[in-house]
Amino acid sequence: MGVAAAMTTGGAIPPEVVSALMTRVTRVKNAIMWRHPFYLPVLAQCRIKIARVGTACVTQCGTIYLDPGFCGGITDDELAAVLAHEASHLIYGHAERRANREPRRWNRAGDRAINACLREAGLGLPEGCLYPLDRDQEFWAAEDLYDVEPEDDEGGGGDPGDDGDPGDDDGEGGDGGGDGGGDRRGDGEPRVGEGCGVLPPERNRPGKEGDDDGEGGDDSGDGRWTDGPDWNQHWRDVRAQCANQGRGTGSGPALRRLTDPPPTKVRWETILRNSMIQAALAHGRDDTTFRRRNRRSGVDGPVFPAYCSYKAQVAVAIDTSGSMGEEAVQEAVSNAITIARVCGVRLFLVAHTTRAYYAEWIAPNVQARKLDEILTETGGTCCREAYDKIAKSGGKFDALVHLTDGEMSWPDPPKPRNVKKLVIGLLGVKARDWVPKVATVIEAECPRPR
Questions:
Q1: CA 221 to chain centre
Q2: This prediction's pTM
Q3: How far apart are CA 68 and CA 74, in angstroms?
Q4: CA pair distance 29, 382, nearest whole angstrom
């Protein structure tokens, strides 16, 4: 949890220390399940082990490791919050949701999201824990906190450590990198603010002291605590049980807030491609014309008009005020031009900050690099002039795709009169509530400004 703690260093943990701490942990664990029924389904399935891990951590198969030195320096109420914190990593699916994000940075973001919920639920964590950097971020999911989390100066956490085990009593403890979120060294001094994260599932191994079943570890070889089961699916099922269990309890709403992970973000080129394909497919029998003979017209006699279709038109508005870095803007423009050419769609491109400083129909043979030097303006954000340019362009647009962070005031009415469908590729969710209800909102993934 990123809390610096005094640690016992070197050698095996004395059995009497393990026994006394296990008695205390069992009492605290039962108490939190009674006071906060939300945690009953998950903590009932977690086993506790005592090991030198610096503070505390959890494995994907549900083993919570606690450090005796760390636990000795906190109160029972704080220990209860620690158990709730580690269990929250499992039910909020942080291992599954990490994807290809940098491990240490993701662990810190996950810790901040969890701790904000615990604080709202009245669970007091030890001093020094991580919370959202700003009060406006209290209700953010881990994915959005990750976007604003400072980057690691020392690089990623590496692959999950196979050279050691958090359950070892030899003081070396393994790397604990990767999903575990950092360097859990044998001297018991995790980096402050490192984030505890989720370690990979354990392998069957000879028994270790510190199990809560009092039998010294899992040497049964039955696969119960190995990476055989689909743990992601298992914890998704447990998450649903926790959400139901927390209904009607005082702390339930705060703890249930993050049980539904946010939707997966979509790359902006996917949003552009799908919008243009749908626009192209919407055309077929748009009108009739006598310029072409209907196939039902005979050689002699009346001539019937044939159906004709209009070329699909799509407007793309890009907010360059800072929502997207320069490289991201260039890539978005290049993708828009390429996709429009392939789909046979007429493209009207608008770039804006507080003003629409570029608004042109894009010729099919235009080179994207010619626009790179133009689309570089930054500043505030307002789309009123951009939407006005679209309304006066003379086009009849099947869709307007707007790539923006949404942090601005919107025109009224919010959609230009010559646009059938407004699609907002939202870069972040800070201003999701600001986006017009008439828009289709898709959370877009995009490189952050450097």
A1: 35
A2: 0.54
A3: 10
A4: 52
